[in-house]
């Protein structure tokens, strides 16, 4: 097992080069609808957070 290269998370053999990897978005062959893009994931998290806050406010008002 090779130790990680200074400043990197993996060894020199398995570290990979910068810029290597699949393209983002529609240029990626497995892109479908955009349902799981970072923006949509963040939007769903924000909506869920607002629903939790609203439910807590409703419960506090009824109790």
Descriptive overview:
The protein is an all-alpha fold and 63 residues long. The protein has one helix and no strands. The longest helix has 25 residues, at 38-62. The mean pLDDT is 79.
Our Rg estimate from Cα atoms comes to 21 Å
Overall shape: it is: elongated
Would you identify the regions where 5 or more consecutive residues have pLDDT less than 50? none
The quaternary structure here is: single chain
Major sheet description: none
**Mean residue pLDDT:** 79
Number of strands: 0
Query: How far apart lie the N and C ends?
Result: 60 Å
Q: In percent terms, what proportion of residues is strand?
A: under 5%
The structural class is: mainly alpha
- Bin the helical content: 25-40%
Separate helix tally: 1
Element pattern in H and E: H
Main attributes of the structure:
63 residues, mainly alpha
How would you summarize the topology of this molecule?
Blueprint (H helix, E strand, L loop, with lengths): L37 H25 L1
Task: Give a short overview.
The protein is mainly alpha-helical and 63 residues long.
